[in-house]
Amino acid sequence: MCSIIGYKGQLIVAPVLVDSLKRMEYRGYDSVGIATINNGKILLKKGVGKVVDVNKNLDLSSMDGHIGIGHTRWATHGGVTEKNAHPHYGCTDSIAIVHNGIIENHSELMEELIELGHVFKSDTDSEVIAHLLERYYAEHKNIKSSMIETCRRLKGYYAFVAAFEDGTICGSRYNEPLVIGLADTGYFISSDILGFIGYTDKAIFLDNRDIVVLDSKTLQIYDQDGKTVKRTLTQVAWELAAIDKGKYAHHTLKEIHEQPSVVEKIGIQNLDKIEEFCSILKNSKAVFLTGSGTSYHCALIAKHILSNFAKIHAETVVSSEFQYTLDGIDNSSVLLALSQSGETADVLQAVKAAKNVGAKILSIVNIPTSSLAKISDSFLTIECGPEIGVAATKSFTAQLSLIYMIVDTLCNGYLGFKVNKQFLVGALREALDYEIEIRGIAEKLRDARDIYVLGRSIHYPIALEGALKIKELSYIHAEGIAAGELKHGPLALIDRNSYVIIINPNDSTSDNNIASAHEVKARGATIIGISNTPNEVYDIFIKIPFIQCNAIYPIIEVLPLQILAYYLSLVKNIDPDYPRNLAKSVTVK
Ligand code: M6R
After folding, report:
1. 117 Rama class: left (phi>0) / alpha (psi -120 to 50) / beta
2. Residue of the CA atom closest to atom 7 of ligand 1
3. Protein residue with least CA distance to atom 8, ligand 1
4. Sorting pLDDT into bands at 50, 70 and 90, what band is 241?
5. pLDDT of residue 1
6. Is the Cβ–Cβ distance between 44 and 85 less than 8 Å?
7. Which CATH number belongs to the domain containing residue 511 in this structure?
C-alpha cells in the first residue's frame, strides 16, 4: 500500500530517506514526501508522482538534518494531489506524520478536533493522527503519553511514524507492518525491511499496538499501556538487498527471466517442512485453499492436482470472499493460504476467520517474516528473492512449483514433478528464447480492444492469470474464459476485432480446444495459439517446448503470456513495473 520510513542517526537523512523510498516504492507510487528536522524545525517537501520525478523537481535529497520521515502513497482517502501527499502536519509545523492503513473513525475524530479548533488541510484520513498527537501533546507535554492517547483513539488499521520538532521519532502499528532497523549509523522505522536492508540486517518486528519512541538518547518500545516491552532481534536475509534491475530494462523483465533458476531451487532447503505439510494435509478432514489475484490462480491449480494426483479434495475460495463462506470449515479442517507478500489484508482476514473456528493454518509465502507466516501453524517459503514488479511473475511459478513438489510427495512421485524438474527448467529457458517473436506479436496487438484467453482443465487458471497480466500491464480489456463456456455466452462478444489466445499444449484437452478455436475463427477473431504443436487454425503461433509430463505445462505456458503482457505495456508506453492505480502489496480490505 503505502511505504513509510523514519530515520535518526549519523547520516544526512534526506538522501537516506529518498533511497529507502525508492526501494519500497512498489508498495505505492502516487505521490511522495519527506520531512526532516534540523535545529528544532521540521521542513517538509512533497509532490505527486514517483520518487525520482518528485526528487528531480523538488530536490528532496538536498534537505538538511539527521532526523526525518518519508512516505510513498497509494491513495485510499482523498485524490492523488500534493495536499493529500504525506507527511501531514497538525495545525502547526511542530509535528509531522506518515501513515499506512485506514483510520475507520476518522470522520468522528475530525469532527471532535474541529470543535476544539483544529483546521484540516487535506482530504485524507491520515491527517487526523497529526492533530490527535498535537492535541494530546498540548495536554500532557509528554511524547510517550500523547502517543498512547492517540493510539487508543484510532480505529481501523495503521502503521505510522511521527516526527516531533524536538527531534523525537515515534511509531506504532495495528494490523499493518512496522519494523525497526538497527544500523551502526542509526535507527530506522519502516513499513518494510527493504527500507533499510542496504544499511543493516538487524531488525525488530513490532507487535500489534507496540509504540516505539526514539528520543535523543534511546530507543524504547512500549505496549499500549506504556509498559516497556522487549521484542526479539531478527537477522534478516541480506539477499533481499538485491533489488537492482541488472542488465534488464525493468524489474518485471528481470523477474520473468529469473524463473528458470527460481524453479530449479524450489523446495531444496524445505524437504522436512514439505513432509510436515503433507502429513497435515493427509490427516485433515477438509482442505481449503485461498489467496488473492495471482496467488488465487495458483490455488486453483493446486486444487486440480491435489485432487487428480493426491486424491485430496480441496475447496478453493478467493480470500476477499472467504469470510462469507465459512460453512464447512472447522477445527478438523486445514486452510492453505498462498501469498507472495504475506501481507495481503484479504488473505490475512481469511486466515483469521479460519483460525477463529479452530482450523489449522498452512501458508506459502515469499517473506518469512511476514504477518501471514507469523500467524500460520506452519509455513513454507518460495525463496524467489524480492519481487519488485507489481505484476506477479516469478512468485507465481515459484508458488506453483512448490505446490507441485508437495503434491508429488503426497502421491509418491506419481505426478512426475521431481523426476522432470530438470527438464522443466530447460523448457523454461527455451520458452524465454521466444521473447523476440513475442515482442513482434505485441506490436501486432498494439491496438487490440479485447483479448480473450481460453484454456480448459488445468490450463483454465493460466487463462485467468494470462488475462490478469494483460489487463494489469497493458490496460487492454482481457478475459480468461474456460474454453467450454464460450458457447454459453462469451461467443456473443467475438467479432473481427477480437483476439483470442488459446492455451493448447498437446494433451487431452487439445481436440476440444481446436474445436473452440474454429468456433471463434468462424466469427472473424484472430487466433493466437500457445502450443507445442502448430495447427492451421492459428493465425499466430507461439511455440512452447515439449515436455513428457503433461501435468506441468501450466508452469511453462504462463511464460509467453507474461512476456506478451510485458511487451504490450511497452508498445503502449506504460511503465510495466508501476501500472496505474495498483500497488504490489495490498494491505487494505
Ligand atoms: O502478495 P500476494 O500474493 O498476497 O498478492 C496478491 C495479489 O494482490 C497479487 O497477486 C496481484 O494480483 C498481482 N499484482 C497480480 O499480478
Report:
1. left
2. 293
3. 293
4. low
5. 75
6. no
7. 3.40.50.10490
